[in-house]
Prior knowledge:
The structure is a single chain. The chain is α+β, with helices and mostly antiparallel strands. Helices cover 31% and strands 20% of the residues.
Amino acid sequence: MFQSFDTTSTPEHGAMRLAALRAQLQIANLDGFIIPRADAHQGEYVAAHDERLQWLTGFTGSAGFCCALAKTAGVFIDGRYRTQVKSQVDLDHFTPFPWPETSLANWLKEQLPSGGGVGFDPWLMTQGQLEMHEKALNGSGITLRPCENLVDLVWDDQPEPPMTPAFPYPIQYAGKSSADKRTECAADLKDTGDDGAVITLPDSLCWLLNIRGADVAKTPLVHGFALLQADAQVQLFVASEKIKALTPDPAIDIAAPTDFANALTKLTGKIRCDKTSVPVAVIHALQAGSADITYGAEPCVLPKARKNSIEIAGTRDAHITDATAMCELLCWLDQQPAGSTTEIDVVSQLEQARRATNALHDISFDTIAGSGPNGAIMHYRVTHETSRTLQNGDLIVLDSGGQYLNGTTDITRTIAIGTVGLEERTTFTRVLQGMIAVSRMRWPKGLAGRDIEAVGRVPLWLAGQDFDHGLGHGVGHFLDVHEGPQRLSRISAIPLDPGMILSNEPGYYRESAFGIRIENLLVVREAGTPKGGDAHRAMYDFETLAYVPIDRRLIVTALMTTAEIDWMNAYHEDCLAKLSGKLSENTHAWLIAATKPL
């Protein structure tokens, strides 16, 4: 199994570890220390070596941070984790706070009214984050001070950094050579007058060099740093053990990661840094030398997000492969009597179905299989201790994905177990209406996620309901299942461009009762001009990538418009057409029934 059901942390260690950390605060003469869920590469996914937030607090979410002071310790979590955190941290010693509603600066000003010094590891905070905090703390007498990592000083059995080997990513999947990518990104530097750029994001590094690895579970990343020059030369700082299988390239100079900071001090000319990803330590190293720091978008970010035609074609194929596994699982699940199947059974059966495709490299994240009240935990991870038996009347939220050489998938279906109540089915229908509305969208070129994401919420808003996560995230190509900078989010100002892949996943979560989420991946494309439209006005729309039936038993058709029913029937017709001939006989019969017109 790629997925484990072991409990990876418990609240019981928090008090002792927090006490050890506070002893280090006294030695360092600090009033507090910030522990983010981050590593030196500033990607979303971290290795076991960098799970400091989890080790200290017990919280296992993919985003958040703790600030430990002498008398209190706050754990700051966003809307996805406000239910989860309550069961994972020792509430006698750690206090959860909703973030970003409660900012670090405002909290610190309340806790340290006379000012004070709060330490942070400069490799684990970006320049943009530091500037935001310092601006908000201005005049408070509170200073943020770079220091060694105090958690590392007390984490006696901290795992070693990962040293897994990298492997080349073939052009038949990448669609473009590394040389061409380096030339394209170098041209961007020349256009802005920059002489080089710092690259710390692992997915950018892997995309640029057409390599993949296994330094992080479920995401094929290689940890390292790079300096891209305006002549398309690259200095790559990576452990030599990782690159033995790679063919040397004269345009890529290899050095040890320990040489990175020193190399930064020797740079001259204009060096571009992205405040959203470059650690403070990088800025300090550049400032210690003669480089002229400029701030701008990391040159790989947008080209990586705009998938080329080969990547899009591969992703289409990966989704069909993945859909066969999903259908085999859903057919199996429908045949299990209520009360006979656990959440772990569902996860295990789905991974088995994906493995049976003979194309699965890994799962793209731990499968979320939350039934009944567990479905209300947005990023629920089932363990031996939490696994529920599926009961009549339950909804189960099944959010999962696969890493295939030709693409990354992410799909969510909410499934009825037995006879489900009208309230749940009515809410499910509203979520479905939001998903359909986004799928059918057409919009003018230049709009960003923040301009259109409300469309997916309107049916819920009209009923006085909402959900506390973004409508959609970007998705990489055999890389991060969460990829920036594109998002369907009210805070995303990045224009949506053709080739960008995003999730479309409205939901609804009632704590201690049930959860609902429906998710397909979409790719942005140029839209044709409909009859009577303005031919001169560039418009975009979405192509749906995922083709897995949506549970008809949960749809209250009386609430839907004719256009919504037509979309739903056409989608199910496409599911049947694309998957016919690729399923077992039993599952094909299930698919025919699951895709009958509403």
